Amino acid sequence: MKFTKPLPIFDPRSIPVLGVDGHLAGVARERLTPQALRERFRAPPVWTPEHSVEKKFEDRPPALAAVLLPLVMRDELTLLLTERTLHLRAHSGQIAFPGGRTDETDVDAVDTALREAHEEIGLPRAHVEVLGTLPTYVTGTAFIVTPVVALVTPGFVLKPNPDEVADIFEVPLGYLMNPAHHRRHEMEFDGVTRQWLSMPYTEALDTLGSGAARERYIWGATAGMLRNFYRFLSA
Protein backbone atom coordinates (compact mmCIF):
# COMPACT_ATOMS: atom_id res chain seq x y z
CA MET A 1 0.00 0.00 0.00
CA LYS A 2 1.40 3.38 -1.02
CA PHE A 3 0.91 6.59 0.94
CA THR A 4 0.96 9.25 -1.77
CA LYS A 5 -0.22 12.06 0.49
CA PRO A 6 2.02 12.83 3.48
CA LEU A 7 0.35 13.98 6.66
CA PRO A 8 0.19 17.78 6.42
CA ILE A 9 2.16 20.00 8.77
CA PHE A 10 -0.24 21.39 11.35
CA ASP A 11 -0.24 22.91 14.81
CA PRO A 12 -1.68 20.24 17.14
CA ARG A 13 -2.78 23.00 19.51
CA SER A 14 -5.26 24.12 16.84
CA ILE A 15 -7.18 20.83 16.87
CA PRO A 16 -10.25 21.01 19.15
CA VAL A 17 -10.34 19.07 22.42
CA LEU A 18 -12.98 16.33 22.23
CA GLY A 19 -12.85 15.58 25.92
CA VAL A 20 -10.78 15.50 29.08
CA ASP A 21 -10.48 12.29 31.09
CA GLY A 22 -11.04 13.85 34.50
CA HIS A 23 -13.51 11.06 35.30
CA LEU A 24 -10.60 8.64 35.67
CA ALA A 25 -8.72 8.46 38.97
CA GLY A 26 -5.13 9.58 39.09
CA VAL A 27 -2.37 7.28 40.27
CA ALA A 28 -2.13 7.48 44.06
CA ARG A 29 0.89 9.33 45.43
CA GLU A 30 2.07 6.28 47.33
CA ARG A 31 2.47 4.46 43.98
CA LEU A 32 4.71 7.22 42.63
CA THR A 33 7.74 6.61 44.81
CA PRO A 34 10.99 4.91 43.77
CA GLN A 35 10.35 1.88 45.97
CA ALA A 36 6.73 1.50 44.82
CA LEU A 37 7.87 1.58 41.19
CA ARG A 38 10.57 -0.99 41.86
CA GLU A 39 7.96 -3.29 43.38
CA ARG A 40 5.49 -2.72 40.54
CA PHE A 41 8.01 -3.75 37.89
CA ARG A 42 9.23 -6.66 40.02
CA ALA A 43 5.68 -8.05 40.19
CA PRO A 44 3.72 -6.41 37.33
CA PRO A 45 -0.09 -6.58 37.31
CA VAL A 46 -2.28 -7.95 34.55
CA TRP A 47 -3.09 -4.96 32.35
CA THR A 48 -3.76 -3.93 28.74
CA PRO A 49 -2.05 -1.06 26.92
CA GLU A 50 -4.50 1.54 25.68
CA HIS A 51 -2.37 2.80 22.78
CA SER A 52 -0.22 0.43 20.73
CA VAL A 53 -0.27 1.19 17.00
CA GLU A 54 -0.78 4.54 15.30
CA LYS A 55 -2.28 4.69 11.83
CA LYS A 56 0.61 4.72 9.37
CA PHE A 57 1.19 7.94 7.46
CA GLU A 58 4.60 7.34 5.93
CA ASP A 59 5.55 4.71 3.36
CA ARG A 60 8.76 3.29 4.79
CA PRO A 61 9.93 -0.03 6.22
CA PRO A 62 9.49 -0.52 9.97
CA ALA A 63 12.49 0.09 12.23
CA LEU A 64 13.20 -0.90 15.82
CA ALA A 65 13.77 1.89 18.34
CA ALA A 66 13.77 2.48 22.08
CA VAL A 67 13.20 5.46 24.34
CA LEU A 68 14.08 6.12 27.97
CA LEU A 69 11.50 7.34 30.48
CA PRO A 70 13.97 8.86 32.98
CA LEU A 71 12.33 9.45 36.37
CA VAL A 72 14.53 11.79 38.39
CA MET A 73 14.46 11.06 42.12
CA ARG A 74 13.84 14.53 43.53
CA ASP A 75 11.48 15.36 46.45
CA GLU A 76 8.82 14.01 44.09
CA LEU A 77 9.60 12.03 40.97
CA THR A 78 9.91 14.08 37.77
CA LEU A 79 10.05 12.90 34.18
CA LEU A 80 12.90 14.25 32.08
CA LEU A 81 11.80 15.16 28.55
CA THR A 82 13.36 16.80 25.51
CA GLU A 83 12.22 19.19 22.82
CA ARG A 84 13.47 18.04 19.44
CA THR A 85 15.15 20.48 17.06
CA LEU A 86 13.12 21.83 14.16
CA HIS A 87 15.32 20.47 11.37
CA LEU A 88 14.93 16.78 12.22
CA ARG A 89 13.17 14.68 9.59
CA ALA A 90 10.87 12.81 12.01
CA HIS A 91 8.83 14.46 14.78
CA SER A 92 10.73 17.74 14.57
CA GLY A 93 10.00 20.30 17.28
CA GLN A 94 7.98 17.83 19.33
CA ILE A 95 8.30 16.93 22.99
CA ALA A 96 9.93 13.52 23.24
CA PHE A 97 11.70 11.01 25.42
CA PRO A 98 15.43 10.64 24.84
CA GLY A 99 15.90 7.69 22.51
CA GLY A 100 16.11 6.60 18.91
CA ARG A 101 16.72 3.88 16.36
CA THR A 102 18.32 0.59 17.37
CA ASP A 103 21.89 0.01 16.16
CA GLU A 104 23.23 -3.39 15.14
CA THR A 105 25.72 -3.21 18.00
CA ASP A 106 23.02 -2.68 20.66
CA VAL A 107 22.50 -5.68 22.93
CA ASP A 108 18.78 -5.04 23.44
CA ALA A 109 16.19 -2.25 23.77
CA VAL A 110 17.58 -1.21 27.15
CA ASP A 111 21.03 -0.80 25.61
CA THR A 112 19.52 1.29 22.81
CA ALA A 113 17.66 3.58 25.22
CA LEU A 114 20.70 4.12 27.45
CA ARG A 115 23.05 4.72 24.52
CA GLU A 116 20.67 7.17 22.87
CA ALA A 117 20.05 9.03 26.14
CA HIS A 118 23.79 9.48 26.57
CA GLU A 119 24.28 10.57 22.95
CA GLU A 120 21.30 12.97 22.94
CA ILE A 121 21.49 14.60 26.35
CA GLY A 122 24.67 13.27 27.98
CA LEU A 123 22.85 11.29 30.68
CA PRO A 124 25.49 9.04 32.32
CA ARG A 125 24.59 5.37 32.63
CA ALA A 126 25.99 5.38 36.15
CA HIS A 127 23.06 7.57 37.27
CA VAL A 128 20.41 5.27 35.75
CA GLU A 129 18.62 2.34 37.43
CA VAL A 130 16.54 0.50 34.84
CA LEU A 131 13.23 -0.78 36.23
CA GLY A 132 11.80 -2.50 33.16
CA THR A 133 10.04 -1.98 29.87
CA LEU A 134 6.52 -1.25 28.67
CA PRO A 135 4.86 -2.86 25.62
CA THR A 136 6.05 -1.66 22.24
CA TYR A 137 4.40 1.34 20.62
CA VAL A 138 4.31 1.64 16.82
CA THR A 139 4.40 5.21 15.53
CA GLY A 140 2.82 6.49 12.32
CA THR A 141 6.36 6.81 10.95
CA ALA A 142 6.80 3.02 11.35
CA PHE A 143 9.12 3.00 14.37
CA ILE A 144 8.52 0.04 16.68
CA VAL A 145 9.41 1.68 19.99
CA THR A 146 10.20 -0.04 23.28
CA PRO A 147 9.75 2.34 26.26
CA VAL A 148 12.37 1.70 28.98
CA VAL A 149 11.45 3.03 32.43
CA ALA A 150 14.28 4.00 34.77
CA LEU A 151 15.04 5.87 37.97
CA VAL A 152 17.72 8.55 37.74
CA THR A 153 19.88 9.68 40.64
CA PRO A 154 20.26 13.51 40.77
CA GLY A 155 23.68 15.10 40.45
CA PHE A 156 24.12 14.51 36.72
CA VAL A 157 25.19 17.25 34.32
CA LEU A 158 23.41 17.09 30.98
CA LYS A 159 25.01 17.98 27.65
CA PRO A 160 22.32 18.18 24.95
CA ASN A 161 23.35 17.35 21.39
CA PRO A 162 22.46 20.58 19.51
CA ASP A 163 21.80 18.62 16.32
CA GLU A 164 18.92 16.74 17.97
CA VAL A 165 17.83 18.48 21.16
CA ALA A 166 16.63 22.07 21.44
CA ASP A 167 15.78 21.93 25.15
CA ILE A 168 15.56 19.63 28.19
CA PHE A 169 13.06 19.99 31.03
CA GLU A 170 11.30 18.04 33.79
CA VAL A 171 7.61 17.52 34.56
CA PRO A 172 6.25 16.14 37.87
CA LEU A 173 5.27 12.52 37.33
CA GLY A 174 2.13 13.03 39.41
CA TYR A 175 0.90 15.62 36.92
CA LEU A 176 1.32 13.25 33.98
CA MET A 177 -0.27 10.33 35.83
CA ASN A 178 -3.46 12.33 36.48
CA PRO A 179 -5.98 11.82 33.61
CA ALA A 180 -7.54 15.20 34.43
CA HIS A 181 -4.61 16.47 32.33
CA HIS A 182 -5.18 14.01 29.47
CA ARG A 183 -7.05 15.55 26.55
CA ARG A 184 -8.42 13.69 23.52
CA HIS A 185 -8.22 14.98 19.94
CA GLU A 186 -9.31 13.81 16.51
CA MET A 187 -8.57 14.90 12.94
CA GLU A 188 -9.59 13.51 9.55
CA PHE A 189 -7.16 13.60 6.63
CA ASP A 190 -7.45 11.89 3.26
CA GLY A 191 -10.40 9.84 4.48
CA VAL A 192 -8.59 8.56 7.58
CA THR A 193 -9.58 9.58 11.11
CA ARG A 194 -6.60 9.99 13.43
CA GLN A 195 -6.91 10.20 17.19
CA TRP A 196 -4.36 11.17 19.81
CA LEU A 197 -3.87 12.53 23.32
CA SER A 198 -2.27 15.73 24.57
CA MET A 199 -0.97 16.56 28.05
CA PRO A 200 -0.02 20.26 28.04
CA TYR A 201 2.13 21.32 30.97
CA THR A 202 2.79 24.93 31.97
CA GLU A 203 6.04 25.55 33.80
CA ALA A 204 5.88 27.72 36.89
CA LEU A 205 7.31 31.23 36.55
CA ASP A 206 10.07 30.67 39.07
CA THR A 207 11.54 27.81 37.02
CA LEU A 208 12.09 30.06 34.03
CA GLY A 209 13.36 33.34 35.41
CA SER A 210 12.13 35.07 32.26
CA GLY A 211 8.93 36.63 33.58
CA ALA A 212 6.65 34.50 31.41
CA ALA A 213 5.13 31.03 31.73
CA ARG A 214 5.92 28.43 29.09
CA GLU A 215 3.66 25.70 27.83
CA ARG A 216 5.21 22.33 27.08
CA TYR A 217 2.81 20.69 24.64
CA ILE A 218 3.15 16.93 25.12
CA TRP A 219 1.16 15.02 22.51
CA GLY A 220 1.17 12.18 19.98
CA ALA A 221 3.42 9.18 20.55
CA THR A 222 4.93 10.63 23.73
CA ALA A 223 1.48 11.15 25.25
CA GLY A 224 0.36 7.71 24.05
CA MET A 225 3.24 5.96 25.81
CA LEU A 226 2.62 8.01 28.95
CA ARG A 227 -1.03 6.93 28.88
CA ASN A 228 0.12 3.31 28.75
CA PHE A 229 2.40 4.01 31.72
CA TYR A 230 -0.64 5.42 33.55
CA ARG A 231 -2.61 2.23 32.79
CA PHE A 232 0.30 0.11 34.03
CA LEU A 233 0.58 2.02 37.32
CA SER A 234 -3.16 2.25 37.97
CA ALA A 235 -3.96 -1.41 37.19
Structure description:
The chain has 235 residues and is an alpha+beta fold. It has four helices and 13 strands. Strands 2, 3, 4, 5, 6, 7, 8 and 9 form an eight-stranded mixed beta sheet that branches. A three-stranded antiparallel beta sheet has the order 1-10-11. The chain is globular, with a radius of gyration of 17 Å. The chain starts with 16 loop residues before the first strand and ends with a helix.
Structural class: alpha+beta
Order of helices and strands: EHEEEEHEEEEHEEEEH
Q: Determine the CATH topology.
A: Nucleoside Triphosphate Pyrophosphohydrolase
Q: Regarding CATH, which class?
A: Alpha Beta
N- and C-termini, Cα separation: 37 Å
Number of strands: 13
Query: Which range best describes the helical content: under 10%, 10-25%, 25-40%, 40-55%, 55-70% or over 70%?
Result: 10-25%
**Biggest sheet, in brief?**
8 strands, mixed
CATH architecture: Alpha-Beta Complex
CATH superfamily: Nucleoside Triphosphate Pyrophosphohydrolase
